[in-house]
Amino acid sequence: MRTSSNPAFRNLPGNGQGGYANFGYQGQTQTQPGYGYPQGPGYPAPPTAADRPMTIDDVVTKTAVTLGTAVVTGGLSIIAGLPYGWAFVALIVGFALSMFIIFRQSSNPALILAYSAAEGVFLGTITELFNRWVPGVALQAIVGTVAVFGVMLIVYKTGAVKVTPRLTKWIIGATAGALALVVFNLIFSLFGVDLGLRSGHGALSIIVSLLFIGIAAFNLLLDFDMADRAIRAGAPARFGWYIAFGLMVTLVWLYLELLRLFASLQRN
């Protein structure tokens, strides 16, 4: 089974089949409780809503709720004019929740929505800060994120780019390299050395942002593929929350990179 560079998706159930153009395909026949399902003494209880096989509607609905929570808390943060220090607090809370969700493979909606709310506060506060520096950059980043998501979904559904094991390894390697670069730059910055990779508005910083945006965009292909294979494998409906969480991890990264890029381009 292929794995994803998104840590939230690495252990999703799947049967190893690629779902390039059939995101909503289900490999199992669902049985509705009370309709042709044997009941009574000696028969197992009908499957509950949480145990039934996941569908594309589960993924779409739960993803919409997760993203909507972030949008609402982000908007409220901007309206309330929260101090910028809240961004750091929200970042720590969101990171802690994400680590717990990933390592426990939790599909608890309360935890995932709490993570989404924390990320909303972080993104809202950071967005307000960037928008003060460069008016209008927030709208550009939002439109850019939606556009990239839509394009990559079309690319996936049409099979224009197939999620093959070779492509998966390339994306995972690129993502690991991006993370290593960020850590490398952070270590140098702690010693007062500015490599210009993630700060300033020079050509090198812009090139790095473009590279990271490309990697994040291709990570969306892996996310779509892992969600597709979970549906094919008959993963329980509650797993839709976990998939929604994984998609949001990628979208947060993509949005932050676009925000940084547009701000850098306009301040040059």
Describe the protein in words:
The protein has seven helices and no strands. It has 268 residues and is an all-alpha fold. The protein has one domain (53-267). Helix 2 (85-104) packs antiparallel against helix 3. The longest helix is centred in the last third of the chain and has 30 residues, at 203-232.
What structural keywords apply?
mainly alpha, 268 residues, 7 helices, single chain
What's the topology here?
Blueprint: H1 56-80, H2 85-104, H3 109-133, H4 137-157, H5 165-190, H6 203-232, H7 239-267
Helix pairs in contact: 1-3, 1-7, 2-3, 3-7, 4-6, 4-7, 5-6, 6-7
Total domains: 1
Oligomer: single chain
Radius of gyration, whole Å: 20 Å
Helicity, as a percent range:
55-70%
- Describe the main β-sheet briefly: none
Mean pLDDT over all positions:
82
Poorly predicted runs of 5 or more residues? 11-45
How many helices? 7
Transmembrane segments: 59-79, 85-103, 133-155, 167-191, 203-227, 239-256
Protein name: Putative YccA/Bax inhibitor family protein
Keywords: Membrane, Transmembrane, Transmembrane helix
Pfam families: BaxI_1 (PF12811)
